[in-house]
């Protein structure tokens, strides 16, 4: 056995609440989102979880989620590294648009492809597919996050639905078709115990992902 990796998608953001494509835009957490982050910290704290280092993105909603979790486990001052490599995927021209309005304009099927397909980016030169997102998440994970876990440490990563989907895809060995139906709930910790060869020994989800979007 090696170390522990805890992944948490940020709590509900203002734009999640408004059903808007968010991407690299930087809305804050809602009251519900704050409560979700605090609850994640409470649950992890009750389990006696202590972290050696934390990673988060360059976006406010993930950073605040990370801090609420660390507060909840009594580690408010823990070293936390921020990097845009684990930012949400860039939604290009869709960012800021209401998802229902986008469906009305381009059709349900096209919007679903943009949201969930593995390798079709949304419109706009900055738009990223899940594969594009993974192309920055995976190297960062291998060079900056994983080494801490392999040293036997317990590592927190508070990030985003799609940056974490890209990571879970690799950890869980999901194929391109399987990952399209993968949904991660806001503020729900996923605890991975990794072996010394970096493969997964066990996975535990501390919450209900059934209503995730």
From TrEMBL:
Under Pfam families, the record lists:
His_Phos_1
Please state the pathway this protein functions in, per its UniProt record: Carbohydrate degradation; glycolysis; pyruvate from D-glyceraldehyde 3-phosphate: step 3/5
Task: Spell out the residues of the site Transition state stabilizer.
Answer: 160
What the entry lists under PROSITE patterns is as follows: PG_MUTASE
The EC number(s) this enzyme carries? 5.4.2.11
In terms of superkingdom, the source organism counts as Bacteria
- Provide the binding site for substrate: 9-16, 22-23, 61, 88-91, 99, 115-116, 161-162
Q: Which top EC class is named for this enzyme in its record?
A: isomerase
Q: Which reaction does it catalyse?
A: (2R)-2-phosphoglycerate = (2R)-3-phosphoglycerate
Residues of the active site are 10, 88
Q: Which keywords appear in this protein's UniProt record, sorted alphabetically?
A: Gluconeogenesis, Glycolysis, Isomerase
**Family per record:** Belongs to the phosphoglycerate mutase family. BPG-dependent PGAM subfamily.
Among HAMAP family, the record links this protein to: PGAM_GpmA
Question: Which protein are we looking at?
Answer: 2,3-bisphosphoglycerate-dependent phosphoglycerate mutase
Instruction: Name the encoding gene, please.
Output: gpmA
């Amino acid at each position: 056995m090696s170390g522990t990796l805890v992944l948490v998608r940020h709590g509900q953001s203002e734009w999640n609440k408004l059903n808007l494509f968010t991407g690299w835009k930087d809305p804050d957490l809602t009251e519900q989102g704050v409560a979700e982050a605090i609850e994640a910290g409470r649950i992890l704290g009750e389990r006696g979880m202590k972290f050696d280092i934390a990673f988060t993105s360059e976006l406010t909603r993930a950073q605040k989620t990370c801090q609420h979790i660390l507060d909840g486990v009594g580690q408010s001052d823990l070293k936390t590294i921020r990097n845009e490599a684990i930012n949400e995927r860039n939604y290009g021209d869709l960012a800021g648009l209401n998802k229902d309005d986008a469906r009305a304009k381009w059709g349900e099927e096209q919007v679903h492809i943009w949201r969930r397909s593995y390798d079709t980016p949304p419109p706009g030169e900055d738009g990223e597919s899940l594969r594009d997102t993974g192309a920055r998440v995976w190297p960062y994970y291998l060079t900056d996050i994983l080494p801490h876990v392999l040293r036997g440490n317990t590592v927190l990563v508070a990030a985003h639905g799609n940056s974490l989907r890209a990571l879970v895809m690799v950890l869980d060995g999901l194929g391109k078709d399987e990952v399209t139906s993968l949904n991660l709930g806001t503020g729900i910790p996923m605890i991975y115990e990794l072996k010394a060869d970096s493969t997964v020994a066990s996975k535990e989800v501390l919450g209900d992902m059934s209503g995730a979007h």
